[in-house]
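Lab meeting, item 3. Inverse folding demo.
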């Protein structure tokens, strides 16, 4: 196909037979971008990478502000563990390295591969939300199952020690830590995000990259929010009980074990890998009931004690996974 970049947009080779007056504002901007760049592979790669950076760091900013404001501390899942500026900056630097060194080449190769399987990029008009919705629902389901299996595997001895341990460096996670992971882990778990769309493309030969973008934006929001360390009364899991949210994943970081899935709670429930989490929740609820007449300070102390117990068990479980012999303290 030849791309004539000198012709005016309304007669461009990219869009033969398209009546531009029938397109909405967003579709016109989309066409203008592809025509301005002239090469769909470069235009798609650039747009995808910029979109990923803007959404990732854009979504982290509110969490950085919330961490800096003591007012929000009452909703912090591990209230004594507020990330320092130095920790957040070190995490940002590593995540940026990972984005440029690992994710950028991945993003760049994904599109030609997906196009070969039938994905549309510059083509217009966009699919309707009725087409996009079931596709995105499938990607959520597929990614969650893939992540559950791969994440559980990453907790096995040698894989944990050399790959996944880096992500567990933060026992009390924060938004920026969502993509703080070893390059091999980024590739393995990233495959769960990309394989759903690739499989869908391969099977149906009908898929638009806009749906991919909506999916990636939702997935980034899910991952960053799950690492935020906050559970608000308005958090999604309080309205959608099978949604994991921060409350579920924070326990995974604090306790090292249990809660391996990303978006939904059902695989952990079905396979029993939420037993310790459920026990902990029951203990916290029982303690809250028992200390109804106790001062707020005392309540905080008791809740902290329960957290410390879980974390101590987690440190032991982590050492066992790595094959480190723990010394029995008399
Ligand atoms: Zn883990
Ligand atoms: Zn995590």
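The presenter then showed the designed sequence:
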């Amino acid at each position: 196909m030849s791309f004539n970049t000198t012709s005016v947009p309304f007669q461009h080779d990219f869009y033969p037979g398209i009546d531009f007056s029938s397109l909405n504002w967003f579709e016109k901007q989309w066409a203008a971008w592809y025509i301005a760049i002239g090469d769909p592979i470069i235009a798609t790669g650039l747009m995808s990478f910029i979109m990923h950076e803007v959404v990732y760091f854009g979504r982290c900013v509110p969490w950085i502000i919330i961490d800096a404001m003591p007012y929000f501390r009452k909703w912090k899942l591990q209230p004594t563990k507020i990330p320092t500026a130095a920790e957040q900056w070190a995490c940002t630097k590593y995540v940026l390295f990972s984005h440029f060194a690992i994710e950028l080449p991945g993003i760049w190769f994904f599109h030609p591969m997906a196009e070969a399987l039938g994905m549309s990029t510059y083509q217009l008009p966009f699919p309707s939300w009725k087409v996009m919705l079931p596709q995105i629902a499938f990607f959520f389901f597929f990614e969650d199952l893939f992540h559950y299996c791969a994440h559980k595997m990453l907790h096995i001895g040698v894989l944990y020690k050399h790959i996944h341990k880096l992500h567990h460096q933060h026992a009390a996670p924060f938004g920026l830590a969502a993509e703080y992971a070893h390059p091999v882990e980024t590739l393995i778990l990233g495959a769960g995000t990309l394989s759903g769309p690739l499989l869908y493309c391969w099977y149906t030969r009908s898929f638009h990259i806009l749906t991919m973008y909506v999916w990636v934006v939702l997935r980034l929001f899910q991952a960053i929010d799950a690492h935020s360390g906050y559970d608000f009364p308005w958090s999604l899991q309080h309205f959608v009980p099978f949604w994991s949210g921060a409350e579920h994943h924070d326990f995974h970081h604090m306790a090292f074990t249990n809660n391996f899935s990303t978006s939904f709670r059902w695989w952990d429930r079905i396979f029993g890998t939420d037993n310790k989490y459920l026990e902990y929740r029951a203990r916290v609820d029982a303690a809250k009931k028992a200390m109804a007449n106790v001062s707020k300070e005392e309540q905080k102390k008791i809740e902290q004690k329960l957290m410390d117990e879980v974390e101590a068990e987690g440190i032991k479980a982590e050492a066992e996974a790595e094959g480190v012999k723990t010394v029995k303290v008399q």
